[in-house]
Request: fold
Amino acid sequence: MSIQPRLFREARVSGWLFPLAVLSAFLAGGLAIYQSHVLSRVISDVFLDAGTLAQVKPLLMVILLVVLGRAIFTFMNEVVTGRLAVSVKTKLRLQLLEKIDRLGPEYLKNESTAELTTTALLGVDALDAYFAQYLPQVLIAAVLPLTILAVVFPLDLVTGVVFLLTAPLIPLFMVLIGKAVETLTGKQWKALTRLGNYFLDTLQGIATLKLLGRSKERVGEVGQVSDRYRETTLNVLRVTFLTALVLELVATLSTAVVAVEIGLRLLYARIEFQQAFFILLIAPDFYLPMRNLSARYHAGMSGVTAAEKIYQVLDLPEPQEITVRKTHKLVDQFNRPFCLTLKDLTHTYGAEQPNALQGISLDIQSGRRYALVGKSGAGKSTLARVILRFIEPQDGQILLNGVDIHAWSREDWCSCVGWLPQSPHLFNDTLWFNLTLGESRFTDEEVNLALATAGLREMVNGLPHGLQTPLLEGGSRFSGGELQRVALARLYLRDPKLIILDEPTQHLDPSLQQTLEDSLERLSIGRTSLTIAHRLTTVLKADEVIFLQNGHLVAQGSHADLFASFQPYREFMRSSGEGT
Amino acid sequence: MKPLTRLLAIFKLFTGEILLSLLLGIAAVAAGIGLLGSSAFIIASAALHPSIATLQVAIVGVRFFGISRGVFRYLERLVSHSVNLRVVSRLRLDFMRRVEPGAPANLVTRQGGDLLQSVMGDLQVLENFYVRVISPVVVALVIVVGTSLFIGSFALELGVILFSGMLVSGFLQPVVALLVTRRASESLSRANAEISADLVEFLQGLEDIHATNTQREFIQRFQGEFNKAGRQQDRLAALGGLNSGVSLLLTNLTLLLIIYAAIPLVNAGTISGVTLAVISLVTLASFEVITPLNPAAQNFNASRAAAHRLFSFGKVDDPLTSIQKLTPATPLSSIRFEHVSFSFEGSEELLLENINFTLQPKRKIALVGASGAGKTSLLDLLVVFKYPSSGNIQMNGVDTRNIDPDGIRSNFSVLSQKPHIFNEDVRQNLLLAKPGATDEELVAAISQAGLSNWLSSLPEKLDTWIGERGIKMSGGERQRLAFARLYLQDRPYILLDEPTTSLDQVTAGEVMTNLFDWTEGKGMLIITHDLRWMPDMDEIMLLEKGRIIERGSLSVLLNRGGEFARMYQDEKDRLREE
Reply:
């Protein structure tokens, strides 16, 4: 219930659009009433006073003008409500994007939150109908009937009373029937979803069915299941359609009552023909806004459902950005010999879960290569993410040259610390875009140098459209190893001082493996690197090995030293060398 | 047959119900016209102060129309939705029947894209063809003719005016509007599709975006896209508004013209003043049938395109459907690939090239190689989801093209990369593998697949609803449920496509050890990255870019010191992190 006021506020803050939408609809409706009035005069003049064409011509001209006005206001209304929908949609979408950006990638790791975010972002389109059709209609349904009442009461009291008494019946019955439909669909929900999804489920599983030898039978069942679905659905519709029936009955019966009532009064000369005819003309208009509202109710409600998700995301608590006072420029800190000190880092993903990191303290010295080693779940990836500032650790501190890194913003930090994940995301766009990611600060020379470092120059030269070649089209143009190197070039382009790498575990063709390793080698020259190592060869290349077990840093030193002196490390390394 | 003709052929099956719904639809509109017409008659007649008896009939009429209008409309909606649902059922069954023989190959594009989304969308459009196109058009035609005749009976020219007015606004205008808006609405839906795809990418790539600090650039790019789509939507809204305005003008101009033409007739006494009042209200009321014709035109266009796409699935000249199936394939004592190559129709690129091997009972073959080497294509050929482009596959010495594919498949237990979990309970999901199996058998298979703990954690055990709308399963659980199906099937050949990708190393070890114990004596083909099982294999084939570049037993390959030996060493070099 708190959703609708919020949506209403979105409409209100969009400036003149919403008032204009309501005003234009109201004017179009008001003119229609006036048109009926003039029309009743024309008919009355001709009918009772033997008016000729020449006499009523001015009135006909008025009608023509009124009709033109109605057409213009109708046009205006659709333009304005359309714009309103677009502007609210764009605004909410940008808000969502910025919110998601502030929440960060860590938040999307969770499957259900990722799903929520996706539905919220893609569901924004469902707001179209809400703002363009439903919301203005709500106000019109409130205002226009009141106007008609105000016109009718002075003309004919009885009609006014009939209108006044019947109008509340409409929302009353809508609520009552709505409740009944809810209980009914609630009872049949399971059957409805199962039967309704049977066809798609079968299509999605057709390969599995064929392999199990069950596809022919199941296809036969699709017909039966659809028939059962039809029966169940019709049972629900029988009740659902009652809403429309009641609306229709209230409108038509009231018109009938009013017609007979004013007909009889006219018979005894208690009312003028012109007034009576006018009332008859506008009687259907009295109920029309409410009927239109009911017809748009469904569109409105799907908008509300979409909005629920959107606000759920927008209302999520955000990770606090802790900022200490700003000192020196971050790049300057990295440009001289530096030391990154991790102090007592402790982190857990949930109260019931064991600590992913437990009091990790470590110095990372500039110019050295570190290999992060340990079983899966030992905390390697968490540690990398904490250093990248994707995760804010629960406890502990990271200092750069003795200064808490919160002195610099996360954005600043990311421009100096680079990240090459195990499977980097490549965008369905050109090679150029995948390298620059939309930033315009890179020159052709810089991009070419990055490509050369990644060992991609030759391949790019052979492409028909060079850097403008779409990267993922057809899926087969680039191999897994090449895509990995595109990500590497992307990283090189940004010239990070400290790079954190998660080595790919998946098997690449041996030749590709070698090229990738060479490219990584070139990238690492003159930089400090921390690699989550999955291969012995990588460990051997490191200056220093950091060995993690269950979130603890248990040993640190060169591979040779550790292997010689530290029993658990030796065991870990041996188990890997054995094969099967 | 033309797509729309085929669609209409389906409607023909339900002629009775369709006629009923059309009659009810016409009756509902006619009652609305009757209500206003007779009301106008009462009021106009009353103005002449006759005796009440002259109004009696009209008063009864008003009451009748007042009640029947809603009731007719209610019944019409029920019947037309019933027609709709019957058509749904028919279309789906029909589609399934046509698609099943060539599935799943005919449900994906060459790029591996999924066609299901578009199929479902098209079906939805066609399902509403009756309610949104046929019914409004037929009802409108009948009412247009009917009211024109009624009004024409007072004076011919009035009928002609009404007829032309309704024809222009009901049939000409929607077609013009459709032509005018088509380009804009097409580019809007393209822009929207692009936005959706980019939004999904933004979420998927958020980590990389953060790490490269490019969120500003992305959001700016989105802003541009939103504005572009927004402009299209504005244009469409303006065109839509124009259309509504013109509709309103046409309706009222028709009314004005009729009154304009009728006034001299009243003055001359050709028609009475009462008639003038009735005619005006009947005209206004009859335009009710024109409103749904605008969307009907849009819908007609969409339906034609949808029918065209949908009915082109599973054409009769599909090789998989047209061949006479001759030979049964059980018991299957050998499978031979002879010079088998495969490429998609119209593509130069060979996905498999000159593959030769023989699979027999008790023989275990491993297929290894980097992703994209053609391993899964080979499996598809083996289970006859596709036929080779050249060369042939022989089963018991007979070309597979001459054997019933279902018969061939009944020899294989297959664990595919993405086993589908149906939207049903656990029991139903397993019974697919062995109809009539007892609960004990199911539980045994589950435990053999290493899923006992999972089963006991379920709220309703075997009756627990799983699949898309039921309890969510992890990738590893799905894979092991597929293992359970495999055990239940118990067929002479086992084909495995990356059986352990979603399992951790320890679980993978247990599951595979169980499997190897169980497959003694069976023929087996395993596609895998995991080289731990290689010592159990009789033959290892290394596939690269569709060709077998090395083959032989493990010891032979290791002694040769080629590509495979390097891979094997590389695998050993990997740290055992589990």
Residues 367 and 528 of chain A are 5 Å apart (CA to CA).
